[in-house]
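Module 6 notes. Inverse folding takes a fixed backbone as the condition and produces residue identities as the prediction. Think of it as a translation problem where the source language is geometry and the target language is the twenty amino acids. Below is one complete input and output pair. Work through it position by position during the lab.
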């Protein structure tokens, strides 16, 4: 589910990413190009304890996807057994911070932890007079206060966008949606699909349901393409500025990659061994991969090399070589979050409940 509300100060682009395990793929797509993650937890009962693993997975995904700003909302403060009591707020807030710090976030990344009532509207757009002990911002104030600065050099690079959605609309040809990762796109510009080299012309561009004449880094847009069918461009593809120089990003595709992987939870009693089949999420697409070789076992906290060419690895960082079942399509450099350029972020999972997060080297 998506929404595009706006205030007098700013326009927002929201994507709803359910926390359930089976919707993890939606989360991967949702964080593509996102700048802020808003977590909503029930303050009543043992909600955080019951879904601790899910929150941990989501925070790992956000951290690896480059999201540098977190806002936490503790809902149902109006519950008859809570009655706006600060004690319950403090318990969940401390627990959430502990999980976030474990992932790698710090106090500067957590912009606000807000007690709210979705039913009554407390602390959403106006300060609540029933929680006078809370002196922080409302949800709206917290979102409006976050400033996202993009490196200026990204505007000078060729246009590039990872496709999040692809639609066939009668009379408008093919429409693709995504976030501009670098460069600028304009109507009548020639573009091409990185994987196949198929070329097209930009018919029109829309942002927040309004036609625009130019889109730059960080903007969430939809592009109508001429003479390109939905069978020639897919979710996960990279749309880029057309080039005839022969140095397209298609040359960056690979079947074998080396990645540093962090094991979030112990996946098997015997640990991870070479030869296992995995699923990697990169950009907004899925890839089947096989673990060819374990290169190094590394201490999570210190980065110290513990063992070279281990037979198996438990809950550690490891450097490994992966064989993909088809060519991975990745951009040379993708920009995520605030002030950070991150190349080739990969989410790796075993079906189903165990997740690992890795980055291509």
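Target side of the pair, the amino acids:
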């Amino acid at each position: 589910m998506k929404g595009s509300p706006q205030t007098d100060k700013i326009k927002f682009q929201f994507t709803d990413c359910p926390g359930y395990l089976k919707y993890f793929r939606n989360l991967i797509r949702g964080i593509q190009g996102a700048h802020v993650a808003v977590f909503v937890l029930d303050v009543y009962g043992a909600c955080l304890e019951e879904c601790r693993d899910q929150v941990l997975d989501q925070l790992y995904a956000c951290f690896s996807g480059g999201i540098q700003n977190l806002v936490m909302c503790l809902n149902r403060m109006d519950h008859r057994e809570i009655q706006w009591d600060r004690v319950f707020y403090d318990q969940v807030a401390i627990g959430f911070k502990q999980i976030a710090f474990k992932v790698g976030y710090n106090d500067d990344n957590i912009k606000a932890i807000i007690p709210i009532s979705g039913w009554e509207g407390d602390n959403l757009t106006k300060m609540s007079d029933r929680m006078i002990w809370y002196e922080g911002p409302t949800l709206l104030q917290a979102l409006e206060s976050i400033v996202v600065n993009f490196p200026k050099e990204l505007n000078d690079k060729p246009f590039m966008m990872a496709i999040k959605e692809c639609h066939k609309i009668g009379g408008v040809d093919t429409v693709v949606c995504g976030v501009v990762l670098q460069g600028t796109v304009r109507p009548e510009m020639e573009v091409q699909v990185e994987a196949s080299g198929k070329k097209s012309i930009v018919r029109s561009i829309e942002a927040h349901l309004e036609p625009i004449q130019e889109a730059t880094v960080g903007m969430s847009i939809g592009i109508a393409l001429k003479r390109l069918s939905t069978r020639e461009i897919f979710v996960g593809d990279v749309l880029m500025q057309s080039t005839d120089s022969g140095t397209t990003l298609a040359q960056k595709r690979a079947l074998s990659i080396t990645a540093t992987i962090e094991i979030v939870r112990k996946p098997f009693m015997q640990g991870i061994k070479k030869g296992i089949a995995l699923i990697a999420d990169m950009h907004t697409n899925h890839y089947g991969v096989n673990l060819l070789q374990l290169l190094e076992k590394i201490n999570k906290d210190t980065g110290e090399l513990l063992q070279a060419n281990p037979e198996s690895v438990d809950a550690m960082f490891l450097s490994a070589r992966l064989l993909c079942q088809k060519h991975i399509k990745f951009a040379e450099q993708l920009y995520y979050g605030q002030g950070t350029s991150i190349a080739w972020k990969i989410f790796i999972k075993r079906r189903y409940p165990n997740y690992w997060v890795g980055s291509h080297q």
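Reference fact for the lab report: Residues 295 and 309 are 5 Å apart (CA to CA).
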